[in-house]
Design a protein that fits this description.
The protein is an all-alpha fold. It contains four helices and no strands. The longest helix has 25 residues.
């Protein structure tokens, strides 16, 4: 399952001119919002299902990747690798 926020960062890493700084910032904000919503859902569901927590944890990495891309390609690359390691993508 591909994550749209990760895909934006990968596109930017491959070609810095393919995604504007405004798009990167919007992507970072959207990823952070999604992560926050997932974390809230996870908190409520954690006692019922560990999978919900794991999904929110992965989404947190997505937020880090998107935020890192807005500031630093090396940090973005690190977090993408970390995300892919955790999600086996």
């Amino acid at each position: 399952m591909q994550n749209k926020h990760i895909e934006v960062v990968k596109k930017w890493l491959a070609d810095k001119d393919s995604v504007s700084q405004e798009e990167l910032k919007a992507n970072a904000n959207a990823a952070a919002d999604a992560s926050s919503k997932a974390d809230d859902a996870s908190s409520k569901a954690a006692s019922r299902a560990d999978d919900a927590y794991d999904a929110a944890y992965d989404d947190a990495y997505v937020a880090y990747v998107a935020a890192a891309a807005a500031a630093d390609a090396a940090a973005a690359d690190y977090w993408i690798k970390k995300y892919e390691e955790l999600t086996n993508e």
